[in-house]
Every structure is written in structure tokens, then in C-alpha cells.
Design goal:
single chain; 315 residues; mainly beta; Immunoglobulin-like; 2 domains; 8-stranded mixed β-sheet; 4-stranded mixed β-sheet; 2 helices; 21 strands; disordered N terminus
């Protein structure tokens, strides 16, 4: 049967996806149940060395029913930056819930003093407080639709995009940073990934010799920008303007023994994507007009890790 689910942002529906599962998942299936699992993962960020979030529970809202709540005996606390490149951790696993459509999901977060916190790369030993905006009542409400199939297990992953989620309130809050997440909810059966390599040395050398282009940012190897759809013109990340934003920004890294920098963008639904690379730091708040290299189209298939061409593109 067909399952439907959608991308989520806080209080705003960002898009729609499709998934496949078992049968009998109509809201008219009175008394029928299914089992559901929710994991959490993170799309990478650049300026933080630690983003620790302590989850105390998760609640699911059936479209025609009361909230189904799961409270954790012990908070589940992770540094979200450890959950990148396809890594994830379970919030709930194989829990029985009413089958049918759901309209909302809520993540409960412990916001007592430094239970959840961030540290910056230039101040790794200093914990900065992290709080949920007032009005959220210690919970992060995600409105949209997803479907739990009857008599089978439906597995989801919540992609916690830290780069877009952590906001500096600039002195307008008692906390140092606010957790205003930009999340994606995806079915684990309907996602694949993209991996690739970047020839940073060649790009940096070319830029340093070309006065018409700005040099790469010193001490920064760059990031791969992932956009949904083919032939997208790459733009920088602007948290104040969701239109045209990349789906995720993935820093590249150099592994021991490698000569090229590598990246992996995970939990991507099937379809066409545009990948581009920039070796200039993006402050993700204003239009930086940063330079991009090696823009290419990549097709993602469920259950497959697709290899992108090396950047700069090799003929």
C-alpha cells in the first residue's frame, strides 16, 4: 500500500514525499495497530564543536485521536554532531501505536540548566546554554502528515539540521542559543545517500592564480551544498529566507591516507539533486555571494549510496 509523509519545519510544511508499507492504514481502521520507530540524525554544521540535546520524550498525534506519548525514564542525550554521514540514534523502537494518518509530532527537550548546550569551535571548553523558544513548552512541535501502516513496522528518521536549527538570539533571550529546528521526517525505506570527493588543492591553486575569483577562506576546506532538484543555481545558506536554500550543507573532510577531501549526504529521498562546492565560509545569515565550483546533477535511489563525480569535475 502507499504511505505518504512530508518534510517538516516548525509549524510549517516544507514538502511532500511518498513511501511504501503494509496494508490497512486508513483512519477508519478502528482498533488496528502498527509498530513505529523514530531515529534522530543530523545534517552537519560548521561553527559548533558540540551540540548536545537531551530528549525526554516523543509524542505522536493521530489525525482523529488523542496524543500518543512516550516518556523516557532516562533522558536520551547525544551530541548531534556525532550523528552525521548516515549515523543515527533511536528515540523509540518498535512501539505499538494506532494505525492510520498522523498530523503532528512533538519532541520533548530537557532545557534545565546546561542539560542541552552547545560549544563553539573557537571556545570548545565553554558550554553555551541551549533553550527551546518560549511558547513551545519544552517541546518542538512538527506539524504535517505521516502514516503508520497497520500490522507492520514503519521506520522513520528525523533529520535534525543543526546548521539551520541553532539560532543566536543576539541578547533577546535568557539562553545563549535557541533551538528552532529545521527538520526533515523521512521513511528509512525511501532514502539513499550521495558520497563524493573534492580536489581542494586544485581548486585552491586555481583560485589563487585567478584574480577574478576570491581565494578560498584560510583554514577552511569548504562544504558540499545539496539542493533538491536538478539544475539548481547554487546559492548560499540564508536562515532568514528558506526559499532557494540548500537542503543541507555538508563539510568536507580529509581522511587518513586520502589525497582528496570527501563528503557524504545521507537520508535523501529518491529523486534528482544538485551538488555544488564552495571553499568560502558561509555565515548563513546574509547573502554572501560566495563562489561555487563543480556544480553537477546527481540521481538518488532508495537504499543506494550514489557516487558523485570528483570536484572539480573530471571529463
Amino acid at each position: 500500500m502507499n504511505q505518504s509523509l512530508k518534510l517538516f519545519t516548525v509549524a510549517t510544511l516544507a514538502g511532500a514525499l511518498a513511501a511504501c508499507g503494509g496494508s490497512g492504514s486508513s483512519s477508519d481502521d478502528t482498533g488496528s495497530t502498527g509498530t513505529v520507530s523514530f531515529d534522530v540524525t543530523d545534517a552537519p554544521a560548521m561553527e559548533f564543536s558540540n551540540v548536545t540535546v537531551s530528549f525526554t520524550g516523543i509524542s505522536l498525534k493521530p489525525q482523529n485521536g488523542e496524543w500518543v506519548e512516550f516518556s523516557f525514564d532516562t533522558p536520551k542525550t547525544w551530541n548531534l554532531l556525532d550523528l552525521q554521514g548516515g549515523m543515527s540514534e533511536p528515540l523509540i523502537t518498535d512501539e505499538e501505536v494506532p494505525a492510520g494518518p498522523y498530523s503532528e509530532l512533538r519532541l520533548l527537550v530537557d532545557t534545565t540548566e546546561l542539560a542541552s548546550f552547545v560549544t563553539l569551535k573557537d571556545q570548545p571548553d565553554v558550554k553555551k546554554s541551549l533553550a527551546v523558544p518560549s511558547g513551545e513548552q519544552s517541546g518542538l512541535k512538527l506539524k504535517g502528515e505521516f502514516l503508520v501502516a497497520a500490522d507492520t513496522t514503519t521506520d522513520f528518521t528525523i533529520d535534525f539540521d543543526v546548521k539551520k536549527s541553532i539560532v543566536n538570539p543576539q541578547g533577546q533571550s535568557l539562553a545563549d542559543y535557541l533551538l528552532k529546528p529545521s527538520l526533515r521526517l523521512v521513511s528509512n525505506l525511501e532514502v539513499g545517500s550521495i558520497s563524493g570527493e573534492v580536489d581542494y588543492a586544485t581548486i585552491n591553486q586555481a583560485r589563487n592564480s585567478d584574480e577574478t575569483q576570491a581565494n578560498c577562506t584560510e583554514g577552511y576546506e569548504g562544504s558540499a551544498y545539496v539542493y533538491q532538484g536538478a539544475d539548481v543555481i547554487p546559492t548560499d545558506l540564508n536562515v532568514n529566507n528558506e526559499e532557494g536554500n540548500p537542503l543541507m550543507v555538508v563539510p568536507v573532510s580529509l581522511k587518513d591516507g586520502d589525497s582528496l577531501y570527501s563528503y557524504k549526504a545521507a537520508f535523501l529521498t529518491e529523486g534528482e539533486y544538485t551538488i555544488s562546492y564552495s571553499c568560502q565560509v558561509d555565515d548563513n545569515e546574509i547573502d554572501d555571494e560566495i563562489e561555487f565550483d563543480g556544480t553537477q546533477n546527481v540521481t538518488v535511489e532508495a537504499g543506494i549510496e550514489t557516487e558523485a563525480q570528483t570536484i572539480p569535475l573530471v571529463n
